[in-house]
């Protein structure tokens, strides 16, 4: 299975010039790596970055022609196209700005914007209607982890996809290509704490089985791990067959650490 490493830039960098500096570094290093990989006949994982929506056009324009894809971090729940929704960016708008994918359901959106089950069904539906791929983020809080509720929480969060498929059964056909799941324990995001590889592996296996059970597909869904992945621990996650890549926050803001993580997969 093709591995993915995705950088979630969140509300960073602060300025256009800092975005361009990060892109300069990333593109130079990716090009150098690709030359070396070509000579060594080595395949690299798929790379994608998710800048803030204000930087989407700049980033997608500069990445055009490179092997790095561009994703949005969110889309509006209210309309796939236009409307009176101050502050929102629709799936059509982010696609027009050059995103081919979007993150959805990130724990920071769930926490700060109170994203509900229905809201996420709507966002997924809008994203797919505009031909965006979706990186659907799920994961338990510290308290839920401590109480041994991880798989129950995952099951509940994945039921968004189940309910969407019940409403729109035709979507099942494209699930293996247009949907990635990112398992991100909330307690591991930006904290430096990580679950063991065995724990992640078991959870990923559960996610793959669960999605397969209601998506009516024999294809295996791609499941990425996210939460304090860095250049030092990436190899251990990459060594497990159930872990198909990483969603990276902090370490994606430096080309060196982002590409070191990519090299691990
Ligand atoms: C994230 O927010 O998606 C994330 C994984 O963050 P970090 O890598 O900084 O923990």
Which ions and ligands are bound to the chains? phosphoenolpyruvate
Calculate the terminal CA-CA distance, rounded to whole Å: 11 Å
In sequence order, what are the helices and strands, one letter per element? EHEHEHEHHEHHHEHEHEH
Q: Indicate the radius of gyration in whole angstroms.
A: 18 Å
Q: Which ranges are low-confidence, i.e. pLDDT below 50, for 5 or more consecutive residues? A: none
Q: What is the tally of beta strands?
A: 8
So how many helices?
Answer: 11
Q: Give the neighbour order of strands across the main sheet.
A: 1-2-3-4-5-6-7-8
CATH level 1 class label: Alpha Beta
Q: For this structure, what is the CATH homologous superfamily?
A: Aldolase class I
- Shape category: globular
CATH architecture: Alpha-Beta Barrel
Which oligomerization state do the chains in this entry correspond to? Answer: single chain
Describe the fold and architecture.
With 265 residues, the chain is α/β, with parallel strands linked by helices. It is built from eleven helices and eight strands. It has helices at residues 16-40, 56-63, 91-96, 107-112, 117-129, 142-146, 150-167, 175-178, 197-215, 234-238, 255-264; strands at 4-8, 46-50, 68-72, 101-104, 133-138, 179-183, 222-226, 245-248. Strands 1-2-3-4-5-6-7-8 form an eight-stranded parallel barrel, surrounded by five helices. It starts with a strand and ends with a helix. Bound molecules: phosphoenolpyruvate (PEP). Residues 8, 184, 189-190, 226-229, 247-251 line the site of phosphoenolpyruvate (PEP). Phosphoenolpyruvate is lined by residues 8, 184, 189-190, 226-229, 247-251.
């Amino acid at each position: 299975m093709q591995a993915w490493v995705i950088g979630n830039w969140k509300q960073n960098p602060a300025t256009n010039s800092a975005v361009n500096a990060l892109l300069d570094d990333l593109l130079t290093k990716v090009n150098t790596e690709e030359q070396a990989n070509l000579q060594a006949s080595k395949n690299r994982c798929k790379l994608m970055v998710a800048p803030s929506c204000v930087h989407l056009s700049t980033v997608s324009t500069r990445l055009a022609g490179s092997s790095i894809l561009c994703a949005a971090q969110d889309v509006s729940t209210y309309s796939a196209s236009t409307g009176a929704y101050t502050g929102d960016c629709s799936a059509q708008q982010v696609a027009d700005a050059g995103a081919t994918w979007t993150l959805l359901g990130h724990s920071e959106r769930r926490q700060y914007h109170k994203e509900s089950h229905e809201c996420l069904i709507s966002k997924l539906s809008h994203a797919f209607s505009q031909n965006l791929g979706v990186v659907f983020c799920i994961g338990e809080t510290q308290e839920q982890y401590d109480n041994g509720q991880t798989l129950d929480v995952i099951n509940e969060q994945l039921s968004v996809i189940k309910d969407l498929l019940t409403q729109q059964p035709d979507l099942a056909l494209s699930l293996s290509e247009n949907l990635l799941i990112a398992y991100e324990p909330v307690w591991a995001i930006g904290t430096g704490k990580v679950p063991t590889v065995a724990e992640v592996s078991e959870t990923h296996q559960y996610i793959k089985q669960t999605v397969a059970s209601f998506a009516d597909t024999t294809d295996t869904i791609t499941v990425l791990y996210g939460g304090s992945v860095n250049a030092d621990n990436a190899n251990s996650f990459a060594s497990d067959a159930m872990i198909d890549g990483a969603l990276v926050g902090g370490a994606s803001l430096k080309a060196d650490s982002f590409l070191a993580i990519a090299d691990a997969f």
